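Same chain as my last thread, 84 residues:
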Amino acid sequence: MKFYGFELNKSLSELRASPYHQQLGRKLCAAFIAQQQGTRLDTAHKKIEEPVGDLWLIMAEIARLGVVPENACDPVGLPNTPVM
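reply #2:
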């Protein structure tokens, strides 16, 4: 499956069936909510319903792979260059 330049080896049905991806997706979602709302991580984790959405499952797979696309930019928008 291709997702915004990321090549994922698993289908959505495989991600939905994976307890690992469900748990990691839930944790990523909680981290995002906690950061956006300025709450504690454990409080945000309680707010998340089961099962998590497909977006968080895809994000969990990307995080698991540790993938960074070749055209990734830093927050300022400048191309990433190696630091020497």
